[in-house]
Amino acid sequence: MTRFQNGSRLLSYTFFRSKTTSPVSPTIALIQGNFQIQHSRHFSNLARATTKEEKEPWWKDSMERLRNIGISAHIDSGKTTLTERILYYTGRIHEIHEVRGRDGVGAKMDSMDLEREKGITIQSAATYCTWNGYQVNIIDTPGHVDFTIEVERALRVLDGAILVLCSVGGVQSQSITVDRQMRRYEVPRLAFINKLDRMGADPWKVLNQGGYLNFSHRKARSKLRHHSAAVQVPIGLEDDFQGLIDLVKMKAYYFHGSNGEKIVTEEIPVEMEALVTEKRRELIETVSEVDDKLADVFLADEPISTSDLEEAIRRATIAKKFVPVFMGSAFKNKGVQPLLDGVLSFLPCPPEVNNFALDQTKGEEKVVLSGTPDGPLVALAFKLEEGRFGQLTYLRIYEGVIRKGDFIVNVNTGKKIKVPRLVRMHSNEMEDIQEAHAGQIVAVFGVDCASGDTFTDGSVRYTMTSMNVPEPVMSLAIQPVSKDSGGQFSKALNRFQKEDPTFRVGLDPESAQTIISGMGELHLDIYVERIRREYKVDASVGKPRVNFRETITQRAEFDYLHKKQTGGQGQYGRVCGYIEPIPEGSMTKFEFDNMIVGQVIPSNFIPAIEKGFKEAANSGSLIGHPVENLRIALTDGAAHAVDSSELAFKLAAIYAFRQCYTAAKPVILEPVMLVELKVPTEFQGTVAGDINKRKGLIVGNDQDGDDSVITAHVPLNNMFGYSTALRSMTQGKGEFTMEYKEHSPVSQDVQMQLVNTYKASKAAE
């Protein structure tokens, strides 16, 4: 990696120097030199042109001193507290407030009233700070699984991340989810083991759990499957936690002052030298497994200098082959500054990260973006917020420069928009700026777009790759209590849909009620609460409903003639073919194949037939839920010269589907959740018995100190109100997290029960 970095630096230097080979008179050179001194090279194009001839590009230094990082973790691992400390030490805020707002203020990054009250982070607030001359953009992400779309959006635009782990709780289910997302978006990361001051803190246990220390003599239980090792050793633990030893620089750090702002550097305590030597060797061994340059020095038994080790860790981290593990206690103000140094030393700057765009003019061909301000503008709208002054759109600029007053083009809609105001965000406060270049995260006002839209300067038609948006798993019927507040109610729903792709709004075709769908009970509760808080609309909410699906299990033929003769033009359309299940693992959920040879059905009616089948598949005949994993093949048909129409063929398709659906042996699919429980061992039997009663399948049972960690797959329909049940079974000591796993077929008795309930409700109408 370094060879490449140095190589690229050498290349860019040679490239810019080679332009000056033509002889230049000393007078011109002197004028150019004076001109450079007198004018700012950032904003003057003329000056930029001259400096380009003379030196490296104007942006090189500012981009190398830029880091875009996210802080992600399991709920309650302390990441908002960590962000708060980072902002304090970097001078962005001048006093520290705790997350749960005991002082009535709440943490800076939790800017929504609801967040300060519940002590959880819901939206990813973006902020920036400077540390040792570097600019660091930080995105604080939610830790609750119901808000993973926020985490995914944040990771999509980051160059690096800090994964916060709790030294007591260890690697928990949400840590694994976040880690999986980081792998999907190829984000290099550091780990920070927090809360070393807590009772039962054991960083080495967490390290082993993380799949770290993969040596032949130490087969650790791997949860995150990382190559990683500690770059620090704590001095004392729990109440005795005093400071940290840096294994790279071989120095001990102590944190003094009322908020840990004074760092005292000392030699390593004598009694810890043996442990430190062993841990440093472990670190070197692990890094040399993934870095050839360090491996050569290590195998030759040569002494390894601080700079050699630091460079090797940086290369391996940026190549996503290694995760350096830092330690500390954000709450007790220990270990945050060395973590910030680690962000600068080991995480990449924007040009070191490969970003791809899809060229819409060449059938979505992948294009590597240069990541420099010299190219055409390419920016991604990764987050929307409704602010006091209209819609606020967060942009990550991947290439080029954006200036206030410029015209930019939304590639997804084709609209040309002027940038009225450009700001840099600090949680919910803002600072006006005139321009921003590649690698920076900024916000613009008054730009109408959806989350995930790409903006360019119009010279290219690139879009950034689409984000992975999970299907909602739960629905609620909702309506405003007062008829007068209907306008505000729909305004709220429209805004939330734009902000959050996993939040869907629909109408129940039978009851005409508004249905909201999302990623779980908490997700929907938060939105109902936000409608009340932010729009002053009281809403009544129905019983949560699970989003079942239907599918077919075998092939079935159809041959249907729709014929209707009334006065004037009649209706005539015949469709023949078959429906069959799509094989498992396919990316599409509905396929339509026109296999007709010739013109038995005129080609202008084919889209109407497809539309009819799609409409019919929206509501299966078992329980009225959408049918998926379905392939429809149209093999034959007939048309009438006068009576055939689009409507006739659409109706023929709908009736044909209903006719053959039962013969295809349909089954009901229900959402199955991956549930991870952590309960004291004495309650293990009761909890496992309850999981079986809920038709759950236990797939893992591990021991973690005095606790049992049970992993199970449980139907979501059987998980309503589970938190109350778990609390009563475990005297309030148990905890669980769940996330969507898949839709899978229900058992025969459950299917009968669901079908009968559906028929009874239809009959009652």
What is the fold's blueprint, element by element?
Blueprint: H1 2-18, H2 26-38, H3 45-54, H4 60-64, E1 66-73, H5 79-89, H6 113-118, E2 125-131, E3 134-140, H7 148-156, E4 160-166, H8 173-184, E5 189-194, H9 203-209, E6 228-230, E7 232-235, E8 243-246, E9 251-256, E10 262-266, H10 273-290, H11 292-299, H12 306-318, E11 323-327, H13 336-346, E12 355-359, E13 365-369, E14 378-387, E15 390-399, E16 401-403, E17 407-410, E18 416-418, E19 422-426, E20 429-432, E21 435-437, E22 441-445, E23 454-456, E24 462-464, E25 474-480, H14 486-499, E26 504-507, E27 514-518, H15 521-535, E28 539-541, E29 545-546, E30 549-552, E31 556-564, E32 571-581, E33 590-594, H16 606-617, E34 630-638, H17 646-661, E35 666-680, H18 684-693, E36 697-704, E37 707-715, H19 722-729, E38 735-745, H20 748-764
Helix pairs in contact: 10-11, 10-12, 14-15, 16-17
